[in-house]
Amino acid sequence: MNLDDVRDDLSTVLFTEEQIQARMLELAAQIDKDYADKSPLMVGILNGAVMVMADLSRALTIHCEMDWMAISSYGSGVASSGVVRILKDLNTAIAGRHVLIVEDIIDTGLTLAYLAGNLRSRNPASIEICAAFRKPEALCNEVNVKYLGFDIPSDFVVGYGLDYAGHYRNLRGLGVLSPKVYS
Ligand code: 5GP
Questions:
Q1: DSSP assignment, residue 140?
Q2: Which residues contact 164 (CB under 8 A, 6 or more apart)?
Q3: pLDDT digits (tens, 9 = 90+) for 47-71
Q4: Is 10 exposed, middle or buried (0-12, 13-18, 19+ CB in 10 A)?
Q5: Is 5 a catalytic residue?
Q6: Which ligand 1 atom minimizes the distance to the CA of 155?
Q7: What's CA 170's distance to the chain center, in Å?
Q8: Which of 18, 61, 151, 180 shows the greatest Cβ crowding within 10 Å of its Cβ?
């Protein structure tokens, strides 16, 4: 789905597919370099990180493995609940592994703060965070994102894996959802 297909539902277009892809290539080049001899375990957070995981992992020239976690987030609303619950855990033991958490967006940072703490307690060799997008609120919490796609305003956005009530995940770009869609 292209931005033009849902243009009326968006109050602003933030990034086109091309802009996102170009940034993902830059991040992949950085990860290639940092993990040259390490074969990282990339941990994607379902469902939102599916697109960023697919693009990032395929842009790498090094070997990597992938695993997935599912945690509770917004449901069908547009405000952070702050409640984090593991719905699906990893299939892989991560002790001694170089773990790279792959997340779609960081809003308050509550989700990642919990997740990073949880994974750290399993004794990985290292743990870093990659996120496609970050909102300003995240800066209030100490979320150390090593690989960041873009800083964005604190509006509710859809596209590139991010949904509203299950829709827009397959939108290639990223846009601010018009309040008329959810009010
Ligand atoms: P946090 O715990 O950082 O406040 O929230 C992170 C999670 O909330 C993300 O993984 C994502 O699922 C959801 N989220 C935060 N902001 C947005 C947004 O603007 N749009 C959508 N669709 N989901 C968001």
A1: G
A2: 76, 78, 156, 158, 177, 181, 182
A3: 999 999 999 999 999 999 999 999 8
A4: buried
A5: no
A6: 19
A7: 14
A8: 151
